[in-house]
Design goal:
By secondary structure, the protein is α+β, with helices and mostly antiparallel strands. It has 18 helices and 22 strands. The strands form four sheets. It has a nine-stranded mixed β-sheet, covered by helices on one side. Strands 10-11-14-12-13 form a five-stranded mixed β-sheet, sandwiched between helices. A five-stranded mixed β-sheet has the order 16-15-18-17-19, with helices on both faces. The protein starts with a strand and ends with a helix. Belongs to the heat shock protein 90 family.
């Protein structure tokens, strides 16, 4: 007996609206239909375990097949199946009432509106109509003494439902592919979709005689069941041709939310040009997206791996909603787990942690800058390295330098270099004074220094070339000048005339005779602002990036060169002053082009004079 009916909704054009608004990517029809088949199969398995289904389970594969000539795609399962009444209830009434609500709410709004809808409508089955102009269901319930049912619908609000001879329990969904969806009749296209979305579904998925999924991915197992080799092998499956990961964190929590997964720390060195979208989000082993912003804290987007949670709220297209309490809890949990893992690695094997620091330092600093709670944990294991290659924690370093590097205001001055080779002369001058110098040459370090100055009491950071060594760490005692005030004024005028550059601000200072005759420095504040702007400070930092470079030229009053410049004839004194200035430029890597050529010629002339 055949029954015909009309789906009771108020909108005649429901399917075009579903097709237009529901999903941005039509390929996910296969994910939805295969997921439904897997759900029906798992439910039957559960009933068998509970003793409510006493029949033979037999083989429980979900089979996907395509017939290019007949223009059909078929998804078959041997799960619960449905009676005619259940089809009417679940396909015609529940799903369509949800569809009606969806249409009434969103038919006048733009495509983005669909992202505000929580996935309670049971519309997954109707994604079939994105690619099919006719859909059939052949189903038989697992319950005894039930007849097979055949439902068909052409995408209008009309359907037909009749009994049919079906030998085995389960459901076959047959899609008659529409003319504008020929791509989905290509086996290679279907295999790509199945591999993308269904690779880890818990029931075997067979396509073209081959099972395409792993039903028990390692994140669904207990860590105690797994070896290091299992973790690294899985990483290579996810990211072929990648270097092995440094280490990993196995997530496994069932309260106050369900979350499993594995996060890997890759080797990224000191680059912010990392590849994002490397963490894959799953829901009950169904791939959802690799756009996990908000679920995973921003600084951990550097990580790779898998997160699986049924508690991340999904809208109808299974794109998760960000502004949700569960998402925030998961985000907080992941941050804590990562911090705990790093702290454990540091405690258990400090030497090994130091070896990995060049790879993990970026994660740690990025996290400290992004998240105060992470900072509170990481401050105990973040490492600083000095130019001698020795590592210190924050507290160890403060203790190491505070006796020698306190200035007259009781501030501990931390000296650092951003390029130990280019700033070698300044580093050496600091070391000769018995000071220590840190290497802070990573891409985030300009921001990191600013944060440490805010968080640490009575600590300031100065780059070694920010001033002359005596002024970097000002002490009570001062060096006296051998020059009179008049000579100092004259010397300043001579150098200013020889240099003739408004960006170079000349000052005469009483330095040690062992120091260089001329030292060029960049004021710490201005240089730091420009560094931060280059590193992406944005906003108010833009003004500093556009300012011309400004340098301080410190002429050493106590160096013999000062006396020679003062006592020489005008032309000779200008040449000597320029030569001393060019040597200082050379030390800073600032002597280039025409000025460098002139310096070389002048040096040769002086050698033969």
């Amino acid at each position: 007996m055949q029954e015909k009916g009309s789906i009771s909704i108020h909108t005649e054009n429901i399917f075009p609206i579903i097709k237009k608004f529901l999903y941005s990517d039509h390929e996910i029809f296969l994910r939805e239909l295969v997921s439904n088949a897997v759900d029906a199969t798992q439910k039957l398995k559960s009933l068998g375990q509970l003793g409510e289904f006493k029949g033979e389970l037999g083989e429980l594969k979900v089979k996907v097949s395509v017939n290019k000539e007949a223009r059909t795609i078929t998804i078959s399962d041997r799960g619960l199946g449905m009676t005619a009444e259940e089809i009417k209830k679940y396909i015609n009434q529940i799903a369509f009432s949800g569809a009606t609500e969806f249409v009434e709410q969103y038919k006048e709004k733009d495509t983005a509106a669909k992202d505000q809808i929580i996935g309670q409508f049971g519309l997954g089955f109707y994604s079939a109509f994105m690619v099919a102009d006719n859909v059939e269901i052949f189903s038989k319930s697992y319950k005894d003494n039930t007849e097979g049912a055949h439902w068909t619908c052409d995408g209008s609000t009309e359907f037909s439902l009749e009994t049919t001879d079906k030998a085995d329990r389960g459901t076959d969904v047959v899609l008659h592919v529409a003319a504008d969806s020929d791509e989905f009749l290509e086996p290679a296209r279907l295999r790509t979709i199945l591999t993308k979305y269904c690779k880890f579904l818990p029931i075997e998925i067979e396509f073209e005689g081959e099972v395409i999924n792993q039903t028990q991915p390692i994140w669904a197992k207990q860590p105690s069941e797994l070896t290091d080799e299992d973790y690294t092998k899985f990483y290579q499956e996810l990211y072929p041709f990648s270097e092995p990961p440094l280490f990993w964190i196995h997530l496994n929590v069932d309260y106050p939310f369900n979350l499993t997964g594995i996060l890997y720390f890759p080797k990224v060195k000191d680059e912010l040009q990392f590849s994002r979208n490397k963490i894959q989000l799953y829901s009950r082993q169904v791939f959802i997206t690799d756009e996990v912003k908000d679920v995973v804290p921003e600084f951990l987007m550097l990580l790779h791996g898998v997160i699986d949670s049924p508690d991340i709220p999904l809208n109808v297209s299974r794109s998760f909603l960000q502004a949700d309490a569960a998402v925030k809890k998961i985000n907080t949990y992941i941050t804590k787990k990562v911090a705990d893992k790093l702290a454990e690695l540091y405690r258990k094997d400090r030497a090994g942690f130091e070896e990995k620091w060049s790879d993990i330092g970026l994660f740690v600093k990025y996290g400290m800058l992004s998240d105060d709670k992470f900072y509170d944990k990481a401050k105990d294991f973040v490492l600083l390295q000095n130019t001698a290659g020795k590592f210190f924690t924050l507290s160890e370093y403060q203790e190491f330098v505070q006796a020698n590097q306190k200035d007259k205001n009781e501030q501990t001055v931390v000296l650092y270099t951003t390029d130990a080779e280019a700033q070698h002369g300044f580093v050496q001058a600091a070391l000769d004074r018995g000071y220590d110098v840190l290497k802070l040459d990573a891409v985030l370090d300009s921001h990191f220094i600013g944060q440490l100055e805010q968080k640490l009491e009575k600590v300031t950071f100065k780059r070694v070339d920010a001033d002359t060594i005596g002024k970097l760490i000002e002490k009570e005692e001062t060096t006296e000048s051998v020059l009179s005030d008049d000579d100092k004024t004259k010397l300043q005028e001579l150098f200013s005339k020889a240099i003739s550059n408004p960006q170079m601000h000349v000052q005469v200072e009483a330095l040690s005779p062992q120091d260089a005759p001329v030292i060029i420095t960049v004021p710490e504040f201005m240089r730091r602002m420009k560094d931060m702007q280059r590193a992406g400070g944005g906003g108010g930092m833009q003004m500093f990036g556009s300012l011309p470079d400004s340098y301080t030229v410190s002429v050493n009053a106590n160096h013999p060169v000062a006396q020679r410049v003062l006592s020489a004839e005008d032309e000779a004194s200008q040449k000597l002053a320029r030569q001393a200035f060019d040597l200082a430029l050379l030390a800073q890597g600032l002597l280039k082009g025409e000025a460098l050529t002139a310096f070389v010629k002048r040096s040769a002339d002086l050698l033969t004079a």
